[in-house]
């Protein structure tokens, strides 16, 4: 058994049995070893952005790491944006990067670079295996590090005992009791849910606390995985725009964090604060990202709301709209047709702003959002989620501009026959940047600036692009067409793409 | 005049008037300022890999920097692979990265990361402008740094006097004389040309030295920009495979470097050396990468070969082949039809291995190669070269696997109506890795390993992909079809793509 085989066996023994890969010469031993360890499933991505994004989507849904296989510094560089989002999502990933053979390093060959420096940018856990005898032990440690709460990217740079499953630390009784006292003080409290506290048990406990104590509830702006829909508590998310957040937090005297961070603005804007916690509001941490926020919320609920029942969302579907596609009618169509138990990978940016409203009463689903703002994650994350949950329908809502970052993920979806329906919200522009151009005070722009935010010259034919990579695709210009095509896509196995052309195009 | 406008004015005054961009919110002031400085041409790329690759291609051909416009850490991360190749090519680039507003940094907003660390990975010159009053001076310094020999990536992180044009240092007379003495010693010498010494004046001087002294001549394996073809000295390149290099350097007692580095293996292989300089061969540096190798070679020629004439390649075209497309017949077709004064962006990997031979006697052309081995550069570099030299035909020879890394460059080519003809050398696999799998001693693989190097399931329809981004495309399965389509593409303005399907597909 050589080093590569020892590595794969350790990974498989540790429950890591999916490898998203874009290998190169320095990873050939690993590729060869796949033949000898059939338990490991190798899934090829055409670019490292697909590989790392898919590992993020897999980890968010499976709750355990996939492994990646990247090639030297440039391969890691190409995958960094996906690892950035994964870091923000606390997704466990075992990130395997092949490096030059040790004795080759001094020669500064063309692909040489400071790989450790890039790995350091990702943060998390980092190990360079220098002795092949240690590869198994290092891999076991990497799995443990990746799974250690709240979850992280563990990078193993290469020249087998299953790890213990790490658990989250419990919040001390005294801290739960202190929060209960705050909630009973009569002052206005708000509980902000994030991290692992955005799934059913935490949402139910939080809802009970709200009923019992009068506390307001919010979920962080970009949750890694939010369970929502009919039968679950519907808790609003913190807004993207600072003025919206100011409304949401107005009058709040105590902000209680459960797995979340206190809200900050995505960007700096002239004359607007970066810290969105209002003056006079005190921030309290009930549970940090690495602590057991779910357990803390449940204990808190039993203190302040022992008899309360959570408020559950009723099944309410929007009527199917008719006529031309607008952001509004598109969101209603999605809300009306979302299938039971779907996973929604949402990178719809501006055109999707009404989706939270129109899908609130849709059948129960998981929502995966753009945690780190590094665009291009929607398609890869959908790919990884579909690998993690092959029995569930995956809906990828993807803005046209972001889609072009990692469109090659469609090819992997076709290759693996994944049940992903991608809807391109096609408005022919970087519309988010048109808005931002105004908001940063750089308005009064003329044609040349606007041209740099325009994607319509030439227009991008997503039907042609998808079919070119083996994914059946259609084009919808009306709500009726979108409804027919969505039903057909959900009804048929394998990937599909719908190019939804929004009326409000430039 | 605000900071962004001051920046752009300084860049334009310093001769930097092309900006390849994929902006985000933190760059909106820059975008807005484009309206007020019409001398700056903004060119949109759909991914930062397109942006940095295009800036590399532009710089290699124009001999002066373009500027980029990248968005925060994730934007820089996506562009790193292109900057890696540019670093290896010594391409001057003014790499402008927008960061969060200074007062926003402490909030660790979603897109925050250690941007300086990534910029440090690129190497070269790095400045963070902290005071808007300094942006003009910093930009001027960035231009000077980018142009300072041998050329580099100068990164300016953002919250007008034109710089002096830096020149290469001359090699001392005593060093030229010492090299002349070596050449006259009767021992076997080989002059290795690289860096700036791969263009006509250096090639002519080297050829004269070879005639006059009997020295062997070689060009480095992956030159940034090699001038070649009929009427120019034809000097063989150092091989990619170590065994080939051993043949080329066999018997050489003195290796004389002119702008090049001593050859090292691309990767480590079992039982093979990383340092490819044979035992008993002494390495001498005539001119380092930042010195004036052209001048040194000319002075050396006047010492050792004052009367010698360079040996010039005669115009010799291969016969147009017929029948199915193989790597051999495809290379012959290219050689037979390469237009006068073309620029060839070569990322053809395995299928292009015969091109050096079949294009040796083609009309004079520039060859841009994969300097840093970070794949995906062919299409972006062709894009930038076409912007730099709008009057010249650009031929991009692109392997199918590499093409999928930065295919979005086609959209920018369509948008800017660039005269680029892309030929996809489509063999349906990562064929280079099939070879490497054998070479690293990881042979005896079965179906699962081979599957991870296979691009044919599903097959990628490049005609569909190109037309989806506004580039007219055709498919060629025979030499006759390829010839007809190549002539048509070269004869018509704007971009074209030919999907050349090689017979030896899996």
The average pLDDT of chain A is 89
Classify the helix fraction of chain A into a percent range: 25-40%
CATH level-3 fold name of the largest domain in chain A = Rossmann fold
CATH level 4 superfamily of the largest domain in chain A:
Thiamin diphosphate (ThDP)-binding fold, Pyr/PP domains
Protein described:
The structure is a homodimer of 506-residue chains. Chain A is α/β, with parallel strands linked by helices and 506 residues long. The first copy, chain A, has 3 domains: 3-158, 3-Layer(aba) Sandwich (Rossmann fold), CATH 3.40.50.970; 173-304, TPP-binding domain (Rossmann fold, 3-Layer(aba) Sandwich), CATH 3.40.50; 327-501, Rossmann fold, CATH 3.40.50.970. Chain A is built from 19 helices and 17 strands. The first copy, chain A, has helices spanning 3-13, 28-34, 48-62, 72-89, 115-122, 135-147, 173-184, 200-213, 242-249, 293-304, 327-337, 355-358, 378-388, 400-403, 409-416, 431-439, 447-451, 462-468, 479-491; strands spanning 18-21, 41-44, 66-71, 93-98, 125-128, 153-158, 189-193, 216-219, 226-228, 254-258, 282-287, 342-347, 365-368, 394-399, 420-426, 473-476, 496-501. Chain A has a 7-stranded mixed sheet with strand order 9-13-12-14-15-17-16, with helices on both faces. Chain A is globular.
Question: Keyphrases for this structure?
Answer:
homodimer; seven-stranded mixed beta sheet; 17 strands; Rossmann fold; six-stranded parallel beta sheet; globular; alpha/beta; 3 domains; 506 residues
